[in-house]
Design goal:
Elements (H helix, E strand, L loop, with lengths): L16 H20 L2 H6 L4 H12 L3 H16 L7 H33 L1 H10 L5 H16 L5 H17 L1
Helix pairs in contact: 1-4, 3-4, 5-6, 5-8, 7-8
C-alpha cells in the first residue's frame, strides 16, 4: 500500500503553501492600506513601534521599485506580530470603508437628483417642498443654464454648481 505523508490523520501538517501565500498577500494588502492612512488616523490605530517606524520609512521613499520592496519588508515585520496587535487598525479601516461607502451613496443620490432636476420640473417642485429655504430663483436659473450648456456642448459650469448647491442642502439637513 502506497501512503503519502498527508494520510496520517493524527499529525497536524499546518497550513498548505497556498494558504501561507494567501495569508502573506493579505498582510501585504493590509500593509498597503495602513500606509495610505493619514498620520492622524494612524496614530489612533495603536500599532507596534517597529511597524510605525517602517511605515515612516516607506512614506519617505519615492522610487516605485524601492517602495514596493520596502512595502514587502513592512509586511514581513507585520507578520512577526500576532493578529491581536492590529485589531485597532483593522477596526479603523473598517470604519473608513463604511464611511466611504455612505459618502459615495450620498453622492450618487445627489447626482441622480441633479439629473431629475434637468429632466423635469416636478423634481424641482419636490425639492422645493423638501427644502423650503432653498433659493428658488437661483436654482431655476442654474437648471436653465445647465440645460443650455448641455445642448450647446459647453463646459458644464452650471451643472457643477447645481451639484454644489444640492450638497449644501444635504449638509444643512443633516
Amino acid at each position: 500500500m502506497n501512503r503519502t505523508y498527508t494520510d496520517d490523520p493524527e499529525h497536524d501538517y499546518g497550513p498548505t503553501r497556498t494558504q501561507q501565500r494567501r495569508d502573506a498577500l493579505a498582510v501585504l494588502a493590509f500593509a498597503s492600506q495602513l500606509v495610505e492612512l493619514p498620520p492622524s488616523k494612524l496614530a489612533r490605530a495603536d500599532l507596534p513601534e517597529d511597524v510605525l517606524r517602517e511605515i515612516d520609512n516607506l512614506r519617505r521613499i519615492t522610487s516605485h521599485i524601492a517602495r514596493k520592496r520596502q512595502l514587502g519588508f513592512l509586511a514581513k515585520v507585520m507578520r512577526r506580530h500576532d493578529d491581536e496587535a492590529f485589531n485597532g487598525a483593522r477596526a479603523l479601516l473598517g470604519e473608513n470603508r463604511e464611511q466611504q461607502r455612505k459618502e459615495t451613496a450620498a453622492m450618487h443620490r445627489m447626482e441622480a437628483l441633479r439629473e431629475k432636476l434637468l429632466e423635469n420640473d416636478e423634481a424641482l417642485q419636490e425639492l422645493i417642498d423638501q427644502h423650503p429655504s432653498v433659493d428658488r430663483q437661483h436654482l431655476r436659473s442654474l437648471i436653465r443654464q445647465a440645460r443650455i450648456e448641455r445642448d450647446a456642448n459647453k463646459p458644464p459650469r452650471a451643472y457643477r454648481e447645481i451639484f454644489q448647491l444640492l450638497k449644501g442642502l444635504v449638509e444643512d439637513a443633516s
